[in-house]
């Protein structure tokens, strides 16, 4: 998916135009134009047109109006150079991450970089042909395999392996379960979220939009921009820790277990404005299928995060035991499938949940749980003892999980656990989600 470099520039420089920590996308575009020209007329566009430029980038009409306003590169440099060094560092990091640059932008070169980027966008837009984008053929694509539900995550350049170091994998003693302990790989020798943010950003639209929505979209870039807006509403309803946990359980289950998502918590929120539903995945297992319920918990101690996550799974199990019967009626309605999957994929899912009209029970005998556990740990900067200490954490976690599983009556339910430490969990999760979807 092509990066919308104009949108990236606007988002990066929002920081310099914020009032009380807030600025709309449209106002941020106006601030760019106003500081890039001597005489920008704000009435050149309606608010909806500024919004369109934010999502779709510059076009020949916008360039013409910019040139009428008289480009003033020195004015633009001065606007950026008014920022503090801390602000410049934050802006440079955001640009470097979002544009996938090989090198970081030095703070004393930031203004020149932004001017050059804007100049490139102007030149490219002058000659942009105003031709409607055609849909790419999807006959053999992952999204449209008639018999296949298909994974949705995008990791064509191995960003997952550049982001996470699997410290330890442990087989748990009940029902084909397992736990994997990870650490964030350092960037230039330092503890960093850079690659994590890159991996999550590439998959925001895949997380919140269905296969059908994405297959029918003319513009995945615009879909990603729409996803950030949808997820911003979701975060306001819950909190950044919830969204980060949900994104990570989605990434880990699809990447590690090859378990494609059916619905995610944020998808349900987008449709129902409720955060009660759980993310649902399907995993092929020895010729049969597992329905995996996503459960994520981020907390300051490993003990608390394990306890809270398993407690949630126990509540779900108790509902299942009490209510019995249909998984589809517990987690979603059959009508929910219509707007999210192709006809053939719906048939596939229904054949898994209800094999034939004469069989009214699911082939899935018991639900499974995918559990992401984020906890706080000190001294995560690269050192020789870090890996040994994280392996010790993983061994401790196994004991805690085993006790919790027994106490919750979950020994007959397969679980897939992913463990990841943070230095300052709340601060980091707030920062990561802010960079991904804004406030």
Describe this structure in words.
- The protein is α/β, with parallel strands linked by helices.
- The protein is 51% helix and 12% strand.
- It has 19 helices and seven strands.
- It has helices at residues 5-13, 25-36, 47-56, 60-68, 73-81, 85-98, 110-126, 159-163, 194-202, 204-208, 211-216, 220-237, 240-256, 265-272, 302-323, 327-331, 343-353, 386-408, 425-437; strands at residues 164-171, 178-184, 261-263, 280-285, 288-298, 368-376, 415-422.
- It has a seven-stranded mixed sheet, sandwiched between helices.
- β4 and β5 form a beta hairpin.
- α1 runs antiparallel to α6 and α13 crosses α19 (425-437).
- The protein starts with a helix and ends with a helix.
- The relative contact order is 0.11.
- Mean pLDDT is 82; it is low at 129-147 and 321-329.
Name its key features.
7 strands; alpha/beta
Q: Helices and strands in order, then pairings?
A:
Blueprint: H1 5-13, H2 25-36, H3 47-56, H4 60-68, H5 73-81, H6 85-98, H7 110-126, H8 159-163, E1 164-171, E2 178-184, H9 194-202, H10 204-208, H11 211-216, H12 220-237, H13 240-256, E3 261-263, H14 265-272, E4 280-285, E5 288-298, H15 302-323, H16 327-331, H17 343-353, E6 368-376, H18 386-408, E7 415-422, H19 425-437
Parallel strand pairs: 2-7, 5-6, 6-7
Antiparallel strand pairs: 1-2, 3-4, 4-5
Helix pairs in contact: 1-6, 2-3, 5-7, 13-19, 15-18
Tell me about the largest β-sheet.
7 strands, mixed
Average residue pLDDT: 82
Spatial ordering of strands, largest sheet: 1-2-7-6-5-4-3
Tell me the distance between the termini.
24 Å
Which class do the helix and strand fractions yield?
alpha/beta
Number of helices: 19
Task: Give the number of DSSP strands.
Answer: 7
Q: What would the principal axes of the Cα set say about the shape?
A: globular
């Amino acid at each position: 998916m092509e990066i919308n470099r104009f949108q990236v520039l606007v988002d990066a420089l929002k920081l310099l135009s914020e009032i009380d920590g807030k600025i709309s996308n449209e106002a941020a575009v106006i601030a760019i134009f106003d500081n890039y020209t001597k005489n920008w007329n704000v009435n050149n566009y309606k608010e909806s047109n500024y919004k369109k430029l934010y999502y779709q980038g510059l076009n020949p009409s916008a360039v013409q109006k910019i040139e009428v306003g008289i480009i003033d590169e020195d004015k633009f440099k001065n606007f950026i150079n008014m920022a503090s060094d801390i602000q410049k560092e934050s802006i440079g990091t955001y640009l470097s991450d979002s544009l996938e640059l090989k090198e970081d932008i030095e703070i004393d070169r930031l203004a020149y970089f932004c001017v050059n980027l804007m100049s490139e966008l102007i030149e490219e837009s002058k000659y942009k042909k105003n031709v409607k984008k055609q849909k790419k053929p999807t006959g053999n694509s992952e999204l449209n395999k008639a018999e296949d539900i298909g994974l949705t995550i995008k990791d064509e350049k191995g960003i997952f392996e550049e982001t996470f170091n699997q410290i330890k994998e442990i087989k748990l003693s009940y029902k084909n379960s397992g736990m994997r302990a990870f650490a964030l790989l350092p960037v230039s020798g330092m503890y960093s979220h850079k690659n994590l943010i890159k991996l999550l950003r590439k998959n925001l639209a895949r997380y919140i939009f269905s296969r059908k929505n994405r297959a029918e979209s003319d513009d995945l870039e615009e879909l990603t921009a729409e996803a950030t807006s949808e997820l911003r509403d979701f975060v306001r309803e819950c909190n950044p820790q919830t969204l980060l946990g949900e994104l990570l359980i989605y990434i880990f289950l699809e990447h590690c277990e090859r378990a494609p998502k059916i619905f995610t918590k944020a998808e349900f929120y987008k449709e129902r404005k409720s955060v009660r539903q759980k993310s649902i995945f399907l995993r092929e297992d020895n010729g049969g299928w597992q329905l995996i319920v996503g459960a994520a918990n981020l907390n300051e101690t490993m003990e608390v995060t394990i306890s809270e996550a398993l407690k949630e799974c126990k509540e779900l199990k108790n509902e299942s035991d009490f209510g019995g019967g249909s998984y589809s009626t517990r987690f979603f309605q059959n009508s929910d499938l219509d707007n999210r999957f192709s006809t053939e994929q719906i048939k596939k899912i229904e054949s898994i949940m209800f094999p034939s009209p004469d069989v009214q029970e699911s082939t899935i005998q018991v639900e499974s749980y995918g559990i992401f556990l984020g906890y706080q740990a000190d001294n995560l900067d690269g050192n020789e003892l870090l890996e040994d200490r994280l392996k010790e954490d993983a061994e401790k976690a196994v004991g805690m999980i085993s006790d919790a599983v027994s106490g919750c009556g979950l020994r007959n339910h397969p679980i897939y656990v992913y463990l990841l430490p943070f230095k300052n969990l709340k601060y980091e999760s707030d920062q990561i989600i802010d960079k991904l979807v804004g406030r």
